[in-house]
Every structure is written in C-alpha cells, then in structure tokens.
Prior knowledge:
Blueprint: H1 17-34, E1 48-53, H2 59-70, E2 74-79, H3 91-99, E3 105-110, H4 115-122, E4 126-132, H5 138-152, E5 159-163, H6 170-181, E6 185-189, E7 205-207, H7 210-216, E8 219-222, H8 238-245, H9 249-253, E9 260-262, H10 275-278, H11 285-304
Parallel strand pairs: 1-2, 1-3, 3-4, 5-6, 5-8, 6-7, 8-9
The chain binds phosphoric acid mono(formamide)ester.
Residues 57-60, 131, 140, 264-266 line the site of phosphoric acid mono(formamide)ester.
Amino acid sequence: MSELSVNHLLGIKYLNKKDIELIFETADHFKEVINRPIKKVPSLRDITIANIFFENSTRTKLSFELAEKRLSADVINFAASSSSVNKGETLIDTVNNILSMKVDMVVMRHPNPGAGIFLSKHVNSCIVNAGDGAHEHPSQALLDSYSIREKLGEVKGKKVVIVGDILHSRVALSNIFALQLQGAEVKVCGPKSLMPHYIESLGVEVETDLQKALEWCDVANMLRIQRERMDLSYFPSTREYVLQYGLNKKRLEALDKEIVIMHPGPINRGVEISSDIADSKHSIILDQVQNGVAVRMAILYLLASKI
Ligand code: CP
C-alpha cells in the first residue's frame, strides 16, 4: 500500500513528488465522495483532531474542520484569543494539555515561522501546519496545484507566475516548492521591495513588469499585500501598487491568450485584483476553496494511517 514519506505535514519542503501524487489521487476519491448526496465516510471514526489557531482564518480553519467531519473524526477547536494562552501558558503546555484528552492529531496555524516544526519535536502527536508566519502553508499549495491540475490537465510544464507580496507570503514559498516538484516553471512578480533576497536561489526568476509576466504565464496566482506582517512601508501608496501590480480587465484583454487566475484569499478587491476579474470565467478562486476540502481530507486520511 502507498503511504506518505512523512509523519507530519510541516511544509512542502519535506515532501517528494510521489507524496504529492498520492495526495492528489486520494483527493480525487474524496472529491467524488463529497459530491454524493451522503458526503461522509467513516475513514477517521475514533480519531480525534484538535484545530488550534493562533491567527485569524476563514478558509483554512473551516476547510480543515469540514474535511475532518466528512471523514467522521471527532473535532475540537481552539482559538488562542479565548484560551489560557492569554494567562501565560506556553505552546508546548497548551498542546500537551489538549493531547492528554486523547487527541490524535493537531492542525495548527501560528504567526511564528517554524512553529509547527518546533511542536513536532516537542510533543507526541501528528502535526499539520495550517500556516506558520511567512514560512509555509502546505495545504494551500497542495490545493492550488490540485486546482491547476483539474483546470489544465497537469501541472508539469505549466508556467505559473506568483504576483504581489512574495516577501511576507507563506503561500508563495509553499507554491514554489510544490510547483517545482511537479515540473512547472515558476516566476514571481512584484516590487523589488517585496522580494526576499534569496528568491533567485530557489530557481525562480523575478519579473517586475506585470504585463510581461502575464504574457509569459499560463496561470497567475495573485497574492494579497500582507499589511499585518509589515513594519515598514514597502511601496509609495496603494494607488501606485494598483497601477503597477493590480490585475484588471484591461491587462487581460491586452493578452493574445486566456490565462487562469488564482488567489488564495482573502481578496482585497480593487487592490491586487479587480472585482470583475475575481468573479470572471478566468478565475478559479472558488474552485480552489472547494478543492481545499477534498485535498485536506486526503492529507488527514494519509497522515492518520501512519499514527
Ligand atoms: N488562504 C487562507 O489561508 O485563507 P485564511 O487565512 O482565511 O485561512
């Protein structure tokens, strides 16, 4: 029987190509399940999963919770804002207390890069990284690649540009690793001030001209400006950013081809993407969200088989 090469999902960096193929084949099965009238399977009955979120989330939190419930797992949710973390309890103590209630897996979002890796070394449980600061967001990159595969047949050979705030983006880093593992070509596009200094060492070309990047690509993945992670001003004004890096109808109509538009959410309409394009036939933004449930079911199912 095929199994993942890892016991935790901490980042795409730790996966291999076969892991991604296995996750996608398993997600294909679960996508069929969740389109049935009865959307539930007993695969994780008797498994208890804690979703612990130290940062805001809409999509990832609800998607993991729904995936867990579709697999018949028992689910508990922990929001740091209403917990004893506010009384000074450490991350390890918090998680060990949760685990002592016979919890089998932990899905964690945390503002600190490497928080999931740290936890996996200090507690005895399967850890799923649901986003750790500006480091990785592996389940997002997997659902993004799964959505490209669904739309274009395969990821291999496709040209993908990731546009916007690369510096503060865990989605960008996880997508770069995932796309390269599958044989896609990746460029990043945005102001130089929002590019990490090491970006070219990852085998990624930088393009500062959005129109040139759009002419090159099959897929454009538009990222939000992550103001919550900014301690400085990285560009003169939002208006200036929109003029140079905002995706709109005029830019798409100037191309001699159709491209696929993606966004991990949450969208800032009128900033990185205009409202009409976010809602257009070119956009697969809501397909990404829908696929997230099947992909997360696959991740949890495959990791639970290793407990
Ligand atoms: N894409 C994503 O991570 O969205 P949330 O922050 O709403 O989970």
